[in-house]
């Protein structure tokens, strides 16, 4: 049974408590609890009382806020701001407590209006929810807006904007909590439609004036630093004063005046900064331009042009120097501009992309259209110097660092297939002549190449290492074969068997007559390998890659000399005579005139043979007075330098191989896709070729025409830019 209640007496009691709560006076815990109980009793006693207490509470709030309004009358400027803030802080806190005290009333009214039947408390807000009746706390905020804000809005906004301008000028800096508190007292509608609109307008006007002052007061370097400081300060100010919804708008207004509208001036000076590589100024300008939509476009172009200009000037002067000079200079350019990108542009991905594009253009630059690009060749020669015995005694760490430098440049080389051609040629020579500084270092280099270009690119290089390792077992088994057959050779003999498909070797050697001392060894090894070990295989001997060690016993001191096969063939003749004419040597050895001259010249230079001129022709006599500081030494062969014509031939072979590769790639794509338009085919071919070389559009088109002629594909009759695969 509901308990009867004296509403007037109860309201009189609640009225005093409401006043104390709104003015933040101390309220005893018991009185607080009793007040909540009284509100509960009123709500459950009658629905009429619910509306009555709600309206009485609203009238009390209006009366209280009207009293505050009178207290603010006659107060202006900063004093108004300070006094308003004091009343607001006290009132907003009191309204929050009051809303908690009237929780049951709020729930009851929601229930009566058919909402929130679960009696869940609604979030406290200064804006009335259109679907639910306003709660006591919301009524308090609404009345504050209607009575106080409407009355003092013009004065408050003017004082706030003046305080914000003082903060921008760093004059009479206002208390942050005071400005922020007053701004946050505005309702959403008033804040956005009145205050924020004025704020954005004043922001633009202030920075228009500030821009003129900065342009007049500073040179360009000082100007961009001052602008950067201004924007940073404004960003901090937004966080200090304004609602989060205004941050981007205020910053945009600031940036628009100081940067976006000055983009032509900034871009004009950008070229000078890039040319002189002024890192601090470039970094400051970069931070300003990235705030503007598409603001970095000109800076990116200037950086790319600058790197290309400096790099290409360097390349023009380097092609006539050594490959070490070239690589070291390229590394210097790469490190120089890599540091610039890191320090000035904070490793921005756009600038890293431009850096890579520019360095690629520099490395693949040619002095003229008729001159082939030599970057791949030079880089391969440099790698050969690094990995060949006789180079500097690098530590493992230094050698790995040098290899990494080669790979860093190799990434930008377009003609990776040309690099592979030269590198495999030099690697073959190092492995055959046992000239590698370390097999581990060789394999590490190939691993690095594999990471960049994939397994197919390095498969032949891996096979070369496999052959070298297998040869150890082959020679060991050959020795066992000789013992088993009780065969005794007159010379110690070992052979390296190399797969013709993996090794870039010329299989046509200069003809020569095999010395009798060696002929039996060769025949026996062929018999062992082609019958006992691998039936059906054919061996082709490459004497120009072979070496021999001879013992010189005709002198007082014994010597061991390492020679080429052709030098050995000449020297073994002197077991039978002390002197031969050039014609006799040619007859016995069957060497070509070119090879014979080269061989005799090297033996004469080593002072083992003495050349004697006569009417009958030149003769070569064994030097019986020969001497050398070393017991073991090597006769240097006359080096065969690659002529420009031979290098041109390599490039020509590469061009032919590229045509075959592109044709195979096109067929593979068309076989998979069946029908493909011209542009899509070009894209896929370029994508599949990029790890070997950068094919030109002209070359791809030629290959397409060749395949059409060979009936691998045809043009679609209905669409000339579309191709059909012919099975």
UniProtKB/TrEMBL annotation:
Gene Ontology terms: biological process: protein ubiquitination; SCF-dependent proteasomal ubiquitin-dependent protein catabolic process
Q: What pathway annotation does it carry?
A: Protein modification; protein ubiquitination
- The answer on whether this UniProt entry bears the keyword Nucleotide-binding reads no
Family of this protein: Belongs to the cullin family.
GO-annotated cellular components = Cul2-RING ubiquitin ligase complex; nucleus; SCF ubiquitin ligase complex
Superkingdom, taxonomy of origin: Eukaryota
Name all Cullin family profile domain ranges.
Answer: 374-604
Known Pfam families for this protein?
Answer: Cullin, Cullin_AB, Cullin_Nedd8
Q: Name one GO molecular function term.
A: protein-macromolecule adaptor activity
The entry's protein name is Cullin family profile domain-containing protein
Gene3D superfamilies linked to this entry: Cullin Repeats (1.20.1310.10), Ring Box Chain A, domain 5 (4.10.1030.10), Winged helix-like DNA-binding domain superfamily/Winged helix DNA-binding domain (1.10.10.10)
Q: Which UniProt keywords apply?
A: Isopeptide bond, Ubl conjugation
